[in-house]
Design goal:
alpha+beta, two-stranded antiparallel ribbon, 34% helix, ten-stranded mixed sheet
Length: 337
């Protein structure tokens, strides 16, 4: 009887291993088939993310050999006949033109951004897939899903767009199954909570100013929720970035450098089971002028991943600035532009 149980156990283990191998092979074949037609798009990227995640969970650990087939989407938002002169359009990396009407520009821009955040989150498995290079990876990992900017003439026709309005628009926009975009991308968040979160981060910054001499010349009390948003006139444009980082990264972000990253734990604020374990905000700072620009990023919400080893940070709008991206301390941006 004992021998039969042992044999049954070994059979089940072997069957499980075989199933993992077959699944991985099928996913890899899917990637090759999509690549054969000569396009690297959302479907290709999603298939490669699924393949990497499958092998990272498997017993053979070949994750290093599975590259992600993802490209950064370049978007130029224009009114009328315009162009984004700082975006280079090539056959391998085309610029996607998004035309909007001047009378309804703000709403249409919010809709474009909501769609790009949604597509990026969905493409990466909505926080349920481990897209780290391999299961032993201990550094921050980032993917730039898209970059967007406004046309040269369009910049002067559009007013700054508050992040609150973007989150409110996402809360009103529905997925195919009726869930709102905001809750799908940032589970546990309500647009009405954003001012409370913002003020918590502001208080964290004010406390840091009072205890750290590096911040003594800054006036974080001047931060205004109403002034926090996207500035179309920004010469750098913006990026939509998703991240996977080791647990504990939030504490390392608080500090000073070429950019300022302030983080605060928000479990008490968003006590839902699916809610974030923390939130951070990237703000540009100038030591010379002693000023802080709040156009650098939207909220970076930090969630746990199924393995418990990493934190997943859903797509975030960040200023396309080297200092901003460097402040995330990502060792890789595995997307080609």
């Amino acid at each position: 009887m004992m021998r039969n149980k042992k044999g049954s156990y070994l059979t089940n283990v072997l069957f499980g291993l075989l199933l993992v191998v077959i699944t991985g092979v099928l996913v890899l074949l899917a990637i090759k088939m999509v690549n054969y037609v000569g396009s690297i798009d959302k479907a290709t990227c999603q298939a490669s993310v699924e393949a990497r995640s499958t092998f990272n969970l498997g017993p053979f650990e070949p994750g290093k050999s599975i590259p992600l087939k993802c490209k950064t989407k370049k978007i130029c938002i224009v009114i009328g006949n315009d162009k984004c002169s700082n975006m280079v359009d090539t056959k391998a990396s085309p610029v996607v033109m998004k035309s909007i009407s001047e009378n309804n520009a703000k709403i249409e821009i919010e809709d474009i951004l909501a769609d790009e955040l949604f597509k990026c989150h969905q493409m990466l498995g909505a926080g349920q897939l481990d897209f780290m290079p391999h299961s032993k990876y201990t550094s921050n990992y980032c993917l730039v899903c898209s970059q967007f900017d406004f046309g040269d003439k369009t910049k002067d026709k559009i007013s700054p767009i508050p992040y609150f309005d973007i989150y409110q628009h996402m809360q009103e926009k529905k997925t195919a199954d009726g869930r709102n975009y905001l809750d799908y991308i940032y589970p546990g968040l309500e647009a009405g909570k954003t001012i409370e979160i913002f003020n918590m981060i502001k208080k964290s910054a004010v406390d840091l100013e009072a205890t750290d001499t590096d911040f003594k010349d800054f006036t974080f009390e001047d931060w205004q929720f109403e002034g926090w948003g996207i500035n179309p006139k920004d010469k750098n444009g913006y990026s939509i970035v998703a991240q996977m980082v080791p647990v504990g990264t939030l504490k390392k972000w608080v500090g000073i450098g070429a950019t300022l990253v302030i983080g605060v734990v928000t479990i008490a604020l968003l006590p839902t089971p699916a809610g974030p374990v923390g939130v951070a905000l990237v703000a540009l700072e100038s030591k010379v002028m002693a000023t802080v620009s709040l156009t650098a990023s939207g909220f970076m919400f930090i969630y746990g991943d199924p393995s418990g080893k990493y934190n997943y940070i859903p797509p975030t709008i960040l200023r396309s600035d080297a200092d901003v991206l460097n402040s995330l301390k990502c060792t890789s941006f595995e997307t080609s532009i």
